[in-house]
């Protein structure tokens, strides 16, 4: 289910900003305006200090040593798994597999579930809106197994062409992999409704939650996904850590995808038996400090409340879209209704190349992203090679949107 942003208590943004030391600096002689949150978010002191405290006091390898530090590290690491499971709506912690992030989580499903279950002629349904991380792993497994890729197209307003969904779901459709929130258009997809239709057709649904988990929270007990992938670094956590959630019976039936320490039960000369989930999928020494940092990030977000964060982002998005429309030769992508999008606004401005827009804004201390945002199929749909993208998070303000507009006025005066 989508979080509803309406009625949420407004954020005390000035107070929250004090938690983010990186925001308090000048870039090119101007106070930093950080509007590249869809790429990665900044980290509050609570997260930085949790990681530091772990390395200062508790560092050891997990599940191995019978000594005090190892016990503590294991407790923190497994405790972090429980915290993440709570954030995902109170799922079973054993269904939460640590990964390096969304990309690795999707690769895990494509390689393990896909490798074991797909055969020639089976179909994988994707959408044109997907990030490359939710396309290329499926292309790789399709090549290996002979499965076919099919695509749900985009409407020009940046929504999925859901009228086509039932027609695309055929007898051979085994899995559908879709994003919860588009990183280049901002569109929030109606996952619960999609899940119902996918399940009616007898297929599984993987949800790419890279932007969803960060920007409007998630309740996996009602979302309807069979697999859910997300990254810690987009939600105030550190880089290099994220998770895959999967339904227990699916995870238990899947083969391991990487071999090594931690994931085994018994090792013989010519074969091994494997640990139960979640460890079956966690070969090698894990990113313990990353898990500790992500748990601190989750606790931080829980205190603020995902609904309030989404409401704040949508307020900034509405304001930015209104102001952008006043610029001549602006083209804004994605749904016109801000309540249908998270805090992501992609645009092109006349003949100015998005890289030039980003360079000029950077000279004024404003960080945005320019490029195809790892969504080349979206760019193709709109006939552009790149867009400029501003993306908001809980610490951004309307004043910062005004700074963006001032910067774009400079861009316009240079290119007019
Ligand atoms: N999008 C962006 O600037 P990783 O890199 O594994 O943490 O996340 C990959 C990914 C998958 N799906 C979606 C919808 C995403 O937005 C991302 C990451 C960043 O938009 C970096 S390209």
Distance between the termini: 45 Å
The CATH topology of the largest domain is Aspartate Aminotransferase, domain 2
Rg over alpha carbons: 22 Å
- What shape does the CA trace take? globular
Question: Would you tell me the structural class of the helices and strands?
Answer: alpha/beta
* Distinct ligands: ligand C6P
Low-pLDDT regions: none
For this entry, give a set of tags.
single chain, 416 residues, alpha/beta, Aspartate Aminotransferase, domain 1, Aspartate Aminotransferase, domain 2, 2 domains, seven-stranded mixed sheet, four-stranded antiparallel sheet, 17 strands, binds ligand C6P
Describe this structure in words.
The protein has 416 residues and is of the alpha/beta class. It folds into 2 domains: 13-31 and 306-415, Aspartate Aminotransferase, domain 1; 47-303, Type I PLP-dependent aspartate aminotransferase-like (Major domain) (Aspartate Aminotransferase, domain 2). It contains 15 helices and 17 strands. The protein has helices at residues 13-17, 45-58, 68-87, 102-117, 136-145, 165-168, 191-200, 212-215, 220-223, 248-253, 288-304, 306-324, 354-363, 376-382, 398-415, and strands at 26-27, 30-31, 33-34, 96-99, 123-127, 148-152, 173-179, 204-208, 227-231, 242-246, 264-267, 272-274, 330-333, 344-349, 366-367, 369-371, 387-391. The mean pLDDT is 96. The site of ligand C6P has 17 residues, from helix 4.
